[in-house]
Amino acid sequence: MDIRTPELFSRGPSPLARLVFYCALAIACIVVDYRFHRLDAFRKAMSVAIYPFQEAANLPSLLADTVRRAIESPQALQAENDHLRQQLLLQADAVQQLGATRSQLNALRALVGLRQEQAASHAVAEIIGMAHTPFVQKIVINTGQSSGIQPGAPVMSVEGLVGQVTAVDPFYSEVTLITDKNQALPVMVVRNGLRAMAFGNGASGTFSLPYVPIASDIQAGDALVTSGIGGLYPAGISVGQIKSVERDSSSAFAKIQCVPTGAVQDHRYVLVLSVPPRALGGELPNLDAPAPSAATNPSAKAPRKLKKP
Which residues in 214-245 are b (16+ Cβ under 10 Å) and which e? Predict the structure, then answer.
C-alpha cells in the first residue's frame, strides 16, 4: 500500500522561510554590488535587454507631445521665437566681451608660460525621467556610453550647472542634481572671489555653504559660480544665488542658504560636458596628512643642532 503524500498536497518551504531566503539574497546582492561592484556588467546587460520595453513604454508620452506640438498655435511659437531673439541680442554683447577677454587671457598665459586650458567637448541630451520623490534629486537623460558619456561629467542647462553624471548605461545616464544631499562642489562668490564648498539640502531643492567663517564678506544676493578647484567642473559656470545669510555669535560659521540657477523643471534638454583629462589623472596630495618625519623619510634632513658657546 502506497502511503506517500499525493503531489497535490505536498508542500515546499513555508512562506516565511521563502521570505527570509529572498531577503537574505537581496541583502547579499546589495552588499556585493556596493562593496565590490560585481554586478555592474549584469546591470548593463539588463539595461540593454529592457531598453526596447522602455522605449515602447515612452511611446504614448512621445505621441502626446507630438500631437500637442502639432496643434500648438503659430502665435505661441512666434512669441517664443521673439523671446529667444531678445535673449540672444542681450547676450551678444557679453559673448563678444568674453571672447576678447579670453584672447587676452590666452596671451597672458603664453607670456608667462602657463599651459592653456583645452575647450571641453559636449553633448546635448534630453531629459527622459525625473525622480518622483522629493528625497532623491536625480534625473535620467537619453545619452550613455554609446554617446561617449563618462561618469563624473558635469551637466548644465541654459541658466547654469545642473548636476553630475553618477551612473552610465549603454543608452542612458543618471544625473544627480547639485541639490542632492550626496553632492558637493567648489564654488566662488563673483563679487569678491570668496571660495567655499556647496552641499545639497535634498528635499528643499536648495543648497548651503556650511563652512564659511562668520566674519566673511558674503551677503544675500551674491552670485555663485564654479571655482574650478579640483579640475572636474570648469571655472565660471553659474551655480546659484545666495538666498539668506544668518550670523550667530555662538557659532564660528555662518548659516548660508542658496538657490540654484540651473533649474531642470522648465527645460527639456541639457548639455553634458566632457570630463577634463586632469580630473581623470592621479589623486591630489592629501593636505590633511601630517608631514613625513625623519624616521619615516630617510631623505628628509634632520634639523641642525646649535652648539652651545
Answer: bebebeeebbbbbbbeebbbbeebbbbbbeeb
Distance (Å, rounded) from C-alpha 79 to C-alpha 86? 11
Quote the domain boundaries for residue 54. Answer: 15-71
DSSP string, 116-167: PPPPPPEEEEEEEEE-SSTT--EEEES--GGGT--TT-EEE-SSSEEEEEEE
Separation in Å, CA 129 to CA 145, 146, 180, 263: 18, 19, 16, 15
Amino acid at 274: S
Question: What is the Cα–Cα distance from 41 to 50, expressed in whole angstroms?
Answer: 14
Contact indicator for 202, 215 with CB cutoff of 8 Å:
no
pTM of the model: 0.65
Chain mean pLDDT for the chain: 79
Angle at 307 between CA 302 and CA 309, to 5 degrees: 165
Q: What angle do CA 44, 170, 173 make, to 5 degrees?
A: 95
Q: Which residue has the higher pLDDT, 132 or 174?
A: 174
* Residue 58 sits in the same domain as residue 131: no
Check if the beta carbon of residue 47 is closer than 8 Å to that of residue 171: yes
pLDDT tens-digit series, residues 117-149: 555 668 888 888 887 677 788 999 988 888 888
Query: 244: which strand partners?
Result: 257
Do 194 and 253 reside in the same domain of the chain?
yes
Name the band, by pLDDT with cuts 50, 70 and 90, for residue 53: confident
Q: How many DSSP H helices and E strands does the chain contain?
A: 3, 12
> Is residue 81 in some structural domain?
no
CA distances to 109, 230, 231 from 106, rounded to whole Å, are 5, 21, 18
Q: Clarify whether residues 241 and 138 are in a common domain.
A: yes
